[in-house]
């Protein structure tokens, strides 16, 4: 009789955030670090005086234990999204103390100033309205993997650049309904707060972000094109939060689809069409040595 093959238990991946005053961020960090190490979590949590943010993975029991701990610690309104990965999506577990849980670089008050939430089921109708300006608040490499049809791409390389983009385009947005979205919702808490602080009154954002939309909205009804970049080993996810088909360029971090991997500039672990001109021959040689080590470990 052939042995029964038991498929590996997939990792539960939890993306979470909540803006809430944290009296002692260092103490919370220490408790989270101990809990995560004891329960075998991997991923990163960011703790600041303004709240908590991060994506972690582990067994279902470990994720439930973290969620229970956060609730007892006062995070009773977490924006949380679970998905699954067949492979360990992070190498280690880290808890970082930072000034902001998502870095805008300007003081805003998401708990009192954030724009109006729009549920995933209502998003299609909103963005189909020709009087609505839809803004993707993510970085350009994230947008390259996929976005909503008709969305404005600010072409930023970090969220810190968003205020400058807003300053440059404030007149174009004046008097408009502005609808914003990001991966899980956290950046829009701050971007919509910034717009309201600058005098915009009709500002909306997608509750739960792209991940909630891809989970809830049937693919046949979707206005999403491509895949959604995620900050873990899966690289991208698609509808139903199924693992996507992109690979990451280990030189520049861009997600690469089939066409980009077929491009002459693509060399695994070394370069892609987005970065082939940005690195020197010496750097490429070092990347090739690194890739050979990776290949040797896997053989």
From TrEMBL:
GO MF annotation terms: oxidoreductase activity, acting on paired donors, with incorporation or reduction of molecular oxygen; transferase activity
Protein name, entry field: tRNA uridine(34) hydroxylase
Pfam families: Rhodanese, UPF0176_N
InterPro entries linked to this entry: Rhodanese-like_dom, Rhodanese-like_dom_sf, TrhO, TRHO_N
Entry-linked NCBIfam families: PRK00142.1-4
PANTHER family, per the entry: RHODANESE-LIKE DOMAIN-CONTAINING PROTEIN 7-RELATED, THIOSULFATE SULFURTRANSFERASE/RHODANESE-LIKE DOMAIN-CONTAINING PROTEIN 2
Family label: Belongs to the TrhO family.
A GO biological process held by the record: tRNA modification
Function: Catalyzes oxygen-dependent 5-hydroxyuridine (ho5U) modification at position 34 in tRNAs.
UniProt cross-references to Gene3D superfamilies, sorted A to Z: 3.30.70.100, Rhodanese-like domain
Catalysed reactions, as listed in the record: uridine(34) in tRNA + AH2 + O2 = 5-hydroxyuridine(34) in tRNA + A + H2O
All copies of domain Rhodanese, residue ranges: 128-222
UniProt organism field: Deinococcus radiopugnans ATCC 19172
Membrane-spanning parts: none
CDD domains associated with the record: RHOD_YceA (cd01518)
EC assignment: 1.14.-.-
Taxonomy of the source species: Bacteria, Thermotogati, Deinococcota, Deinococci, Deinococcales
Keywords tagged on the record: Oxidoreductase, Transferase, tRNA processing
């Amino acid at each position: 009789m052939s042995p029964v093959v038991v498929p590996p238990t997939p990792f539960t991946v939890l993306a979470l955030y909540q803006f809430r005053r944290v009296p002692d961020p260092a103490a919370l960090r220490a408790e989270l670090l101990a809990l995560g190490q004891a329960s075998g979590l991997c991923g990163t949590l960011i703790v600041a005086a303004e709240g908590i943010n991060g994506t972690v993975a582990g067994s279902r029991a470990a994720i439930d234990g973290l969620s229970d701990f956060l609730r007892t610690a006062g995070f009773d309104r977490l924006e949380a999204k679970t998905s699954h990965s067949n492979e360990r999506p992070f190498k280690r577990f880290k808890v970082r103390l930072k000034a902001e849980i998502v870095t805008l670089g300007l003081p805003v008050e998401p708990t009192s100033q954030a724009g109006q939430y729009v549920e995933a089921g209502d998003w299609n109708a909103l963005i189909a309205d020709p009087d609505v300006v839809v803004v993707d608040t993510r970085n350009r490499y994230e947008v390259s993997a996929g976005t909503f049809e008709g969305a404005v791409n600010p072409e930023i390389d970090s969220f810190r650049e968003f205020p400058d983009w807003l300053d440059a385009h404030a007149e174009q947005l004046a008097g408009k309904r502005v609808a914003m979205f990001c991966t899980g919702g956290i950046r829009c808490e701050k971007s919509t707060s910034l717009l309201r602080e600058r005098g915009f009154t009709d500002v909306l954002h997608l509750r739960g972000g792209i991940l909630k939309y891809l989970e809830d909205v049937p693919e046949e009804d979707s206005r999403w094109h491509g895949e959604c970049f995620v900050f873990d080993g899966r690289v991208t996810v698609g509808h139903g939060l199924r693992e996507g088909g992109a690979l990451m360029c280990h030189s520049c971090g861009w997600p690469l689809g089939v066409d980009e991997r077929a491009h002459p500039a693509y060399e695994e672990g070394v370069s892609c069409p987005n970065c082939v001109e940005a690195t020197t021959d010496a750097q490429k040689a070092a990347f090739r040595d690194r890739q050979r080590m990776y290949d040797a470990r896997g053989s």
